[in-house]
Design the sequence.
């Protein structure tokens, strides 16, 4: 599979240029365009850590998981907010 990741570069203080990846991911429908040091492979795509975490969560998380995660944040003595 061919996959193009744009590169950009910035000038170093010591001279020369340092290449950066430009993240091809999307956040809320907008291009991410972060310039991370590393890109992470989540299977087909190479994304920055932020996009990779978002994609992984939204794909793998079921409503049940969401509820569990929410409940696990509660501490003894705290109660769930009342339903309206
Ligand atoms: Zn990204």
Sequence:
């Amino acid at each position: 599979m061919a996959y193009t990741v744009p590169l950009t570069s910035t000038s170093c203080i010591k001279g020369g240029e340092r290449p950066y990846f430009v993240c091809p991911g999307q956040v809320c429908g907008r291009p991410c365009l972060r310039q991370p040091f590393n890109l992470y492979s989540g299977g087909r795509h190479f994304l920055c850590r932020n996009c990779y975490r978002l994609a992984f969560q939204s794909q793998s998380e079921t409503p049940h998981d969401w509820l569990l995660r929410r409940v696990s944040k509660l501490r003894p003595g705290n109660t769930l907010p009342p339903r309206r």
Observations:
- The chain has one domain: 7-72.
- Residues 23, 25, 32, 34, 47-48, 50-51 surround zinc ion (CB under 6 Å).
